[in-house]
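Troubleshooting: if your tokenizer reports a length mismatch, compare your output against this known-good record of 258 residues.
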Amino acid sequence: MMDFSKNCYVIAHRGASAYYPENTMSAFKGALELKADMIELDVLLTKDRIPIVFHDEKLNKKTNGKGLTQDFTLTELQELDAGSWFDKKFKEEKIPTLLEVLEFSKGKILVNIEIKTEAVSDIEKGGVVQIIIEMLKDLEMEEQVILSSFDYRAIERVNKYSKDIKTALLYEKKQSSNKTPATLIEEYEVDAFNCSKKQLSEKWISELNNSRIPYFIYTVNKKEEMLSLIKHGAKGIFSDKPDVLKRVADEFFRKELM
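Known-good structure output:
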């Protein structure tokens, strides 16, 4: 259950993406094997409006395809090789659907779904947000997932469709108009605040901790940075190396109990 009860959540960024091609079933299975608390993934819509797990607007870097991801149907996209860019041994890896990943994750691991801005073009009609929420309801996974986005319209839409699903604001400077994290949390009625390690200032840390707002920081792969964030009260950390983060977190909290 996504209830923020842990001291610090170990979040596998796009799966265990230091060891597997990102946003693939191998990466998510790897994250589970490495005992991450949560997987993070990115969602885009195909031409035939099916949510897929893929980060880039263009296909050329992470597949053997070319062009915009949204210009292809699911059938066309799943013919592509989504693993060889990482290592040739993953040449059979395909772009997974969101449904496929959720069915794998159900009852096993928490899921942070980032709704990509490119998927929010028809936001006023509900679009991708409504599709995802209906999917979560059908699977009875509302309490296992947190939805986030850099596009604040997506968060507003989630709140209109469901009050049962946790949401997090991914800080985006232009939309925030110099508002502080606490102000943004209240204005958009979200449950948590996400930002990069570079954006997180001492002032923000103080405000977030004093306001008891859960905050999650991305993307951290160095042990010393992980430890510093844990000490400062981060509720969760996104890492390509969830195994390293888990060891750092376990050791810190073990010493805290001594």
